[in-house]
Design brief:
By secondary structure, the chain is mostly helical. It is built from 15 helices and no strands. It starts with a helix and ends in a 6-residue tail after the last helix.
């Protein structure tokens, strides 16, 4: 991305994306503390705006999580067939239950964070004795495009909001998880981007290219392996989030009741997990990788925008409602989140207007059946 858009755009874009996600995460944290279920933005829209807006948000979350998972799988493997196989393997792991999948995911997250810290340390070590360190020069006009694409780097906080049923004390734990995960992610990513921009001529995009350009052959290969292993955490988290959203929508009668089937021993929503795995695998095989990513990013920004817009509405409608966590200066914070996410969404949506129109038409058509209640 740095080679395509330039280092100033890269750094500015990631900072703007972090700002938009920080403002949005505050809104998610307040909703999650009040509505600690598994539906994330769908559930918040249901409580604030009604069934049809909630259905539209649910469809947007489907695009975000399912197509986003497929995009990550294709990026990880490079080929749709292998990506579909990886999606099915992740499905089998999720079926084993939250304890097993969370344990594997925690190990991979630790590996991922360690890899990023290793990259930061290596580049700073190289920069101390380097004859030439890149200066942050060049045009920064592409920051909006970079920021929109970078949003997907930070969406882990939203997945936390789908785990309300797995928390012991969700009204306390969810806000901490949402804001804490975003804080750690933001600090690591901005540090990585900042040191990446020090490298004058990366030999390709990504951490591998920067490490290779600084002479760290063995370090570069280690980083590359760990980065690919770390990507699997994104796939697991997103597929887990989608299965919980399916479960929440089925609980409200908007999706088939068969999705409510759980495994007796682990209580994992096995039917929703299997449906998620099949749909992600199908998306890997049928849709171009770049389209997968672009649609998923726009759907994410749309969900962010609606959640931020809905929070002041709920504040006005139910001012006396108990709020374990409250967004500070909500009448400034929420509109700012709407503005940032809306600007980024409009920039990316223009390039996939036909695809988005088709998705919107399909969502409205399917509403004819969902609103009557699906009990199959």
């Amino acid at each position: 991305m740095a080679r395509q858009y330039g280092a100033p755009s890269l750094l500015a874009g990631y900072i703007v994306a972090a700002l938009g996600c920080a403002l949005t995460a505050l809104c998610y944290a307040e909703f999650a503390a009040m509505e600690p279920g598994s539906g994330s933005a769908y559930q918040y829209a249901q409580a604030t705006l009604g069934r049809f807006p909630a259905w539209i948000i649910g469809c947007a979350l489907f695009l975000e999580y399912t197509l986003g998972s497929a995009a990550v799988a294709v990026l990880w493997t490079g080929k749709p067939v292998y990506a579909a196989g990886m999606a099915l393997a992740a499905t089998m792991l999720l079926v084993l239950g939250i304890r097993v999948s969370a344990g594997v995911n925690t190990a991979l997250v630790i590996l991922k964070c360690g890899t990023l810290l290793l990259f930061i340390a290596w580049i700073l070590y190289w920069a101390k004795g380097a004859p030439a360190v890149a200066r942050l020069t060049g045009p920064a006009e592409a920051w909006r495009t970079v920021a929109g694409l970078a949003i997907f780097s930070y969406v882990g906080f939203e997945s936390v909001s789908t785990l309300g049923l797995e928390c012991r004390n969700p009204r306390r734990d969810l806000p901490i998880g949402i804001l804490g995960s975003l804080a750690v992610t933001t600090a690591l990513y901005l540090a990585v981007i900042a040191v990446y921009c020090l490298v004058p001529d990366p030999k390709g995009d990504g951490l591998l290219g920067a490490a290779m350009a600084t002479g760290g052959g063995s370090v570069a290969q280690l980083i590359n392996v760990c980065v690919y292993l770390g990507l699997s955490t994104v796939l697991l988290i997103m597929m887990m989030g989608q299965s919980r959203i399916f479960f929440a929508m089925a609980s409200d009668g908007l999706l088939p009741a068969a999705l409510l089937r759980t495994q007796r021993r682990t209580q994992a929503p096995v039917a929703a997990i299997l449906a998620t795995g099949v749909l992600v695998a199908a998306a890997c095989l049928l849709i171009d990788a770049q389209k997968l990513y672009d649609i998923a990013v726009v759907a994410t920004l749309f969900a962010f925008t609606v959640v931020a817009a809905a929070l002041p509405i709920l504040r006005r409608r139910a001012p006396g409602r108990k709020r374990p966590f409250e967004v500070p200066m909500v009448w400034l914070t929420a509109p700012a989140a709407v503005a940032v996410n809306g600007v980024l969404m409009s920039k990316l949506a223009a390039g996939i207007a036909w695809e988005l129109a088709f998705c919107a038409a399909a969502a409205c058509f399917l509403w004819r059946f969902a609103k009557k209640g699906i009990t199959v």
